[in-house]
Prior knowledge:
Elements: E1 3-6, E2 9-12, E3 17-23, E4 32-38, E5 45-51, E6 56-58, E7 66-71, E8 76-81, E9 90-95, E10 105-110
Parallel strand pairs: 2-10
Antiparallel strand pairs: 1-3, 3-8, 4-5, 4-9, 5-6, 7-8, 9-10
Amino acid sequence: VQLQASGGGLVQAGGSLRLSCTASGSMRTIYVMAWYRQAAGKEREWVASSTSGGVRSYTDSVRGRFTISRDNAKNTMYLQMNSLKPEDTGAYYCSDGGAIWGQGTLVTVSS
């Protein structure tokens, strides 16, 4: 399975973006799907994850602003990002929990 992330872009603070992560194969059998991000000069950090059973988790800094979801029928995972802040800027990656990674999609939030 390969993962491909898309949907990044430039947005003003307070704006919204929706990221997508499409798997080349079935996502139904993947227990955990997750989003990570990496700001320039910083380590990659976990942002949110979703289990196949529907359990969703978020890092504290995005809880209430971001929503992770997955559509197994479309083999696609999403990250709806609202009320974006400049500190949300970075490259966003999707992963199956650490073994398989998609290429990053860049999110830039201007103040």
